[in-house]
Design brief:
With 170 residues, the protein is of the alpha+beta class. The protein has two domains: 92 residues, no CATH class; 39 residues, no CATH class. It contains three helices and eleven strands. Strands 10-9-8-7-11 form a five-stranded antiparallel sheet, with no helix packed on it. A two-stranded antiparallel sheet has the order 1-2. About 24% of the residues have low confidence.
Length: 170
């Protein structure tokens, strides 16, 4: 789903099979975790009737959408937890357990943020030009330093990027 979501220009339709046969065995599946990170105001959640006895029922009983809000999830990923915290509890989002988020909302919530990559590790203590030894790549000289990541020009292995904990001073 991630690739489809990131490449969609105006609209993306994402579907999943709640049960499917793989390698001769039936397996249950869940929607992509990336769907949980989308703003609710831009998502319609619909569940088709099941071949096991009507809307919301399957071979195992009631659908998981019957007992949860469509965006409630048990994912423990940091991104999902951050989105849930920013989202807050808004019980007007559900409609009979099936959910519809296409209409206007009294208080729309969006997940906004800036992606910034910063090294959390203090400097490595190495200096550019310093000679080092690596167990696999042998001897080399440090070309650049980025936090604890060293770009090293090794004598026989060429240029490699390694963590400072994998090299020794020589």
């Amino acid at each position: 789903a991630y690739v489809g979501i990131t490449r969609a220009r105006k609209r993306a339709y994402i579907r999943f099979a709640s049960n499917r046969r793989m390698h001769g065995l039936w397996q249950s599946s869940i929607p992509s975790r990336f769907l949980d990170e989308l703003p609710e105001a831009h998502v319609d959640v619909a569940e088709d009737g099941s071949s096991y006895g009507g809307y919301g029922m399957n071979a195992y009983g009631a659908s998981r959408f019957d007992t949860r809000e469509p965006f409630e999830s048990t994912y423990s990923t940091p991104g999902w937890q951050r989105a849930q915290k920013n989202r807050g509890g808004n019980s007007d989002a559900t409609m009979g357990g099936y959910g519809s988020f296409s209409g206007p909302r009294a208080s729309q919530r969006y997940i906004e943020g800036e992606l910034v990559a910063k090294s959390t590790v203090a400097g490595s203590g190495y200096k550019t030009g310093e000679r080092v030894f690596h167990q696999k790549f042998g001897y080399g000289r440090i070309a650049t330093i980025d936090g604890n990541k060293l770009t090293i020009d090794f004598d026989k292995a060429g240029q490699k990027r390694v963590l400072d904990s994998f090299v020794e001073r020589h």
